[in-house]
Amino acid sequence: LINLKINNMPISVKKGTKILQAAQMLHIDIPHLCYHPDQRIKARCRICSVEVVGQRRLLAACSTECWEGMEVFTDTKVVRDTQRGILQLIMADHEENCLTCPRNGNCVLQQLCSRFNVLRPNIPHVGQHIEKRGANPSLVHDPEKCVKCGRCIRACKEIQGIEVLGFAGRSTNIHVTTPFDAEFDNTKCVLCGQCSLACPVGALVEKDDTDRVLDAIFDPNKTVIVQTAPSVRIALGDEFGMPKGSIVTKKMVTALRMIGFDKVFDTNYGADLTITEEANELIERIKSGKKMPMATSCCPGWVNYMEKHYPDLLDHLSTTKSPMQIFSAITKTHYAKQENLDPKNIFTVAIMPCIAKKYEITRPEMAHDGRPDTDAVLTTRELIKLIKYIGIDFENLPESEFDNPMGTATGAAAIFGATGGVMEAALRTTYEWLTGEEMKNVEYTPVRGFDGIKEAQINIGDKTINIAVAHTLNNAKILMDKLRAGECKYDFIEVMACPGGCLGGGGQPIGTTMEVNKKRMESIYQIDKNTKYRKSHENPYLKQLYKDFLEKPGSEIAHKLLHTHYQA
Ligand code: HC1
Ligand code: SF4
Ligand code: SF4
Questions:
Q1: How far is it, in rounded angstroms, from Cα 473 to Cα 496?
Q2: pLDDT tens digits, residue range 545-558?
Q3: Hey, which of 159, 298, 357 would you mutate to test ligand 3's pocket, going by the most ligand atoms within 8 Å of its Cβ?
Q4: Fewest beta carbons less than 10 Å away: which of 121, 159, 396, 415?
Q5: Which fold does the domain 211-562 belong to in CATH?
Q6: Is-same-fold flag (2-75; 211-562)?
Q7: Whose CA is nearest to atom 2 of ligand 2?
Q8: Which residues participate in catalysis according to the annotation?
């Protein structure tokens, strides 16, 4: 252990601990912009400068390791003047329209300016006008709000290995951009939104669809149906001061009713349906030996990645649609008929932890009779915005239940939100269908946890099935390169683009880190444990649906509505 003092407070830390982390242990928040706990340290912004006794220059707290006997001061005059100077320089190059910024009230720069009393910039504006980028359904980039911390660039590179974003220009003209300043759509970007989650200010944000959804709610002719993804219920509470990982499913349902949705359903019901179709597809592929290994296809960031980076391997993707799209397809066909509703007057909204889902609903294959199956996707962050707009005291809301028939789901569906969850859910059903025996212990732990790539062999009846699970596209790349080189013996692969799976999605609350994701993962497995049915094919409402409408997994009507294809 290393002993040091920060602001005269003694502390002992492990070797390698940085000053910023040591200060956090003492509950001192040294200001920082370019530092992110899950990223490589760059020490670009220097706003974390501190004074260390015996040193002639200020040191960056994010990158300087503590040493024995070190004496640090975070609040001297020279430190404060330096921090204020840096803020003044940033403001000189920053559009001052905080009031209308999507991150107003949740912006690190705004908080720091208020904290350091930089209320009136004293340096003339030097920034040059740079056009916004946003001609795509998911992501808006406003370089004039950028603080040049580089966190988006590192997220794209270190998590996804895509490197769409980079710095260009010099001096006061330095800015973040894409190759040839292209629109995201025309680059290798997969619209995962991890850059927006990493951005400390309003320079990278999701396309806002809240007004479009409210317009539908206000329209008396529309029946507005909402579904909520597995990973929203364990993240939403963050923004309302609840402990990280709080399971807020029933408060969320109440809030959605208060916002004005006519029916509040569960994407998890769609996830059960995805599993029955996908397990059936897997068994067919195993039996025929064709297009093996099969890969999951519910993550649109991953599907975009395959289409843009591995178009020669598209055949491996399962044709089963994502839970969100399956849900909406059933809503606008069978459910509409059951309830005597004209599909034209149904408006379907999906609350997702994801930004790529906004793109997924615009794919031409995801529409019927010229109408999209899902009309709008709101991220968890946008739902938070709606809850705040209505003025709901979320933490103290009474609890309520989803509507039925599409509000009942199994534990297998709940775990979709964590990396390995789709695989585990699929194995529960595949096992029982292939062997005809009951699976006694449904918890398949080799696919759980945050290892980048998890591999396992599972014996099902007389077959040995080789599986692999990857999260983040950096890890997916390793699997896909092996597959392309003919070096892998897998039968079934799961990929989720975001760290930890959807629970770490690009549309989750600001402040999402791997430490937070761990709590979310624990909650997701807790939900599974506490759910009555834990295998998708046991969902009683699903059994009814097959009986009344879909006939059996893989039937002609199931293929027409619940399966899709991909394009290079
Ligand atoms: Fe996901 Fe999925 S798990 S993709 O991560 O298959 O977004 O949560 O809704 O569709 O169910 C996201 C989460 C989500 C789908 C499901
Ligand atoms: Fe990179 Fe994802 Fe951002 Fe696209 S959305 S620039 S792939 S981090
Ligand atoms: Fe979206 Fe989930 Fe895929 Fe991330 S992992 S891109 S949140 S579907």
A1: 8
A2: 999 999 999 999 99
A3: 357
A4: 396
A5: Rossmann fold (3.40.50)
A6: no
A7: 192
A8: 278, 281, 298, 318, 357, 360, 365, 502
